[in-house]
Amino acid sequence: MEVKSVEELYQISNHLRQLVITMLENAGSGHSAGSLGMADVFTALYFNILKHNPKKPHWKDRDRVILSNGHICPILYASLAHSGYFEEKELLTFRKINSRLQGHPHYQSVPGVENTSGSLGQGLSQAIGIALSLRLNGKNNQVYALLSDGEHQEGQTWEGYLFANAQKLANLTVLIDRNNIQIDGLVENLVPLNDLKRKIAEFGWQVLEIDGHNMEQIIAACQQAESNQVGPTAIICQTIPGKGVDFMESLPAWHGKPPDEKQAQLALKQLRSLNNKITCHQLS
Amino acid sequence: MINTTKIEKINFSPTASTLDSTREEFGKAIAQIAQSNDQIIGLSADLTESTKMSLFAQKFKNRFFHLGVAEQNMIGVAAGLALGGKIPVCTSYAIFQPGRCWEQIRQSICYSNLNVKMVSTHAGLSVGPDGASHQALEDLALTRVLPNLTVISPCDGNQARKATFAMIEHQGPVYLRLTREPALSVTTSETSFEIGKGQVFRVGSDVTIISHGTMIGTALQAALILEEQMNISAQVINLHTIKPIDQELLVQAAKTTQAIVTLEEHQIMAGVGSAVAECLATNYPVPIEMVGMKDQFGQSGKAHELIDYYGLTVEGVIKAVKKVIKRKNHS
């Protein structure tokens, strides 16, 4: 895969955001906020960082992406389609009966989907199992587990952190969508995670904190995680839920809502006029 | 009606007293299989010794993982290992697996149809003094309801060994139910074993007693007494595979004897009795009586005391047989 410039990567993340909006409006249901918020991270992964081959989805030497917060699958599907795992027009079948694009990802439903998710808290464990199997097979591929901040309220997530540290899984990188929203409101108002970086570090992990909309930071952090030979790394990505569509940004209400036709038109107009200039979120 | 059913070769007599252990035989079998199959990975949730995974753990240090007291993570990790092409064998007590991690089994394993083997020991009342918190009486209800899952309850150590081999051969998720206490050894190395095929351990014409797991000894003893003392001819079926259930054998038994009694170390509700009833009600309805836990929890005590106390006994079976024959004759 030829190396893309940062400029090109932002063009792609903008395009993926448009695909997400179109897909959700067409489906009439689905999760806007996280899907839009993680578009830059997914772009960095699928178009720069990952060792993968869309024409060979079972290639034994591929890196793995394990999506844990499966509800943001619109961005996963958009990334897979745009990479070439399947055709972009299939995105219009999302959530419809007999579709390969299930409302939450189902393992092997469509090329590129590596695991089943939807029930929060289970993906990190799955990612750990895959990382272990790769290590047992003598492969040094990376496993990227994508988690939401809200799902850190599930105890199983912490079981995973404990165990991955015990196993010193250096081929495991967790990327956390730190957008501070969950269904019932703001994470820090409901059941606060507080200093998530410190918490995960206390479990023995290397923890990095970045702007989840800054392509260079995302790439640098993933490279740093990969070069960590000692143990697993967690990258906390500060993001704005709904990023790119001003009437969606930062509102918990958009967690599980799709745009209607009018809203979708407005959203697409905004995205197209952005001229690929996503403003980076300031780390507070 | 003449019973032309095939009878399985077993080793049962009125004076039978040899015991063997389902969990010990599993432990030996899995270590043996792992010798020639390097894709098998052992996982334990802090119960390595009591689930008899210690032999495996000792021999295959690189392929054995301590997950600690974290069953949900264990199941997810197993799913990941299976996604990576391995054959994970997850072990715990039946109360914790499937109890604690039921949703993980559903979402991460069954819905993805992954090749994960879940072996749980300490099923049923015979856990004994630990008490109700540890006596799994619901695990078959929880597991048989999951699509893609094969559910097996072997009747003795010999059969547990064969079931272990079959479980590894089988492509797809499996739940294997074992017990803490040794029990009457009833099968021999010549007794066949095939997933999904129930076994006739004794031919009879008046009633069929269907059981599984280590209750099979009780079923056979009851059949003996029914014949010798009450002139009732009881067929005994060992239904080692709860799912997929052997519909053909069950319907044949219903046709032949026209009356069924089920016996299990499990709640009656949603247990194997229910599974049999589901099958027969829709194919060949006959009167059924079910012996099992009557919608209550257990308590501390010695295994045999508890079995007696809750009526999962020879007397309990005989009583049920008399009742169901009465119903048969009045219908």
Verbal overview:
The complex is a heterodimer of chains A (284) and B (331). Chain A has one domain (6-273): Thiamin diphosphate (ThDP)-binding fold, Pyr/PP domains (Rossmann fold, 3-Layer(aba) Sandwich), CATH 3.40.50.970. In chain A, strand 6, helix 9 (215-227) and strand 7 (233-238) form a beta-alpha-beta unit. The termini of chain A are far apart. Chain A is built from ten helices and seven strands. Chain A has helices spanning 6-27, 32-37, 39-49, 73-83, 123-136, 155-166, 187-190, 196-202, 215-227, 261-273, and strands at 64-67, 143-148, 172-178, 181-182, 185-186, 206-211, 233-238. In chain A, the strands form two sheets. Chain A has a five-stranded parallel β-sheet, sandwiched between helices. In chain A, 54% of the residues are buried. With 284 residues, chain A is an alpha/beta fold. In chain A, helix 1 (6-27) runs antiparallel to helix 10 (261-273). Chain B has 331 residues and is α/β, with parallel strands linked by helices. Chain B has two domains: 19-184, Thiamin diphosphate (ThDP)-binding fold, Pyr/PP domains (Rossmann fold, 3-Layer(aba) Sandwich); 199-330, 3-Layer(aba) Sandwich (Rossmann fold), CATH 3.40.50. Chain B is 37% helix and 19% strand. Chain B is built from eleven helices and 14 strands. Chain B has helices at 22-36, 54-59, 71-83, 102-110, 139-144, 157-169, 216-230, 247-257, 272-283, 303-309, 314-330; strands at 19-20, 40-44, 64-66, 87-93, 117-121, 150-152, 174-177, 183-184, 199-202, 207-211, 234-238, 241-243, 260-267, 288-293. In chain B, strands 3-2-4-5-7-6-12 form a seven-stranded mixed β-sheet, sandwiched between helices. Chain B has a five-stranded mixed β-sheet with strand order 9-11-10-13-14, with helices on both faces. In chain B, helix 4 links the parallel strand 4 (87-93) and strand 5. In chain B, helix 1 (22-36) runs parallel beside helix 6, helix 7 crosses helix 11 and helix 8 packs across helix 9. Chain B is globular. The model of chain B has no long low-confidence stretch (mean pLDDT 96). At the A-B interface, helix 5 and helix 6 of A face helix 3 and helix 4 of B.
